[in-house]
Amino acid sequence: MHTPLPILTLLIAGCNSSSFSHSDGRRCRVATDEGSHHSSPPPSQPSLPPSSPSPLPPNPQTNLLQNHSFESSSSDPWYDFSNKSTSWLPFTISNTTAHTGTHSAHLHMDSADTTNPQPQTTAIHGIVQTLTTPDNTLPTYISGHYKVTNWNRSTEKQYLQLVVMAARPTNKPANSNYPTHQLAIPLAGITEPPLKIGNRRFAFDQAALPPKEPTQDTWVFFQYNLHDLYQKHWGFIPENSKDFRIFFEVRYDNRDPAADQQTDKPATADVYFDTLYLGPDSRTPTTPTTPTTPTTPTP
Fold first, then answer.
1. Domain that holds residue 170
2. In angstroms, rounded to a whole number, what is the distance separating the alpha carbons of residues 105 and 98?
3. Entry pTM
């Protein structure tokens, strides 16, 4: 009998003293080894939105995210909205910085870039995947690793986040007329909601707020219990959803370009996402496959 290869080389583990508790759905720990960094990896073409959700993996008890470590020959089925929104910027696939394997998703932010001008008030750098699940119910856990370099804050609302969007769940609250119900989970950069969106809830916990400034030059592990967070912030766990969209972003909102130009502080960041997971299992951080001493960012 043919045994399918495992999709992730991660071990199942429970909470420990260095993690947030399962009761609030959060866990985050900084990896001790560091991956390589080059500030200017070769560019690649952005992926466009697929016409339909990603097909399910052969084994539903595996990672529901396709190309979760970006080792495929293309960026599919990840995409962005740079072809539909002037606030969105395209992403690239890095072959110089990786947590697992040799590739990762690279989000490059630079509000002072004159070669590829970026929006000055709101800029969203992100990757998106649309998918269905075996029973059309929200998976329990989402996790992964990110790495931040060249971080320079020029505005208060400059941050990293992941967003989960459930489309048309049949068990939505009776007082909700929204076709989608979004859950935004800040990873770093903000400690309160940066904006108001009617169908979006920000998952802040005052007992375990994300860091105001992201850890730089090292891979950071994150994990969240989506069932706990949807129940806490929306009052229900989405069922029979048409599909789910998963976003990983670095962005700034309501930036004042004139004020930032006076202080000569552009908004910059290079953010890498890798070894992403969506499924039924709790995960633990893994050691980067190519640990090296990080490169010191150029001022």
1. 27-53+63-279
2. 9
3. 0.77
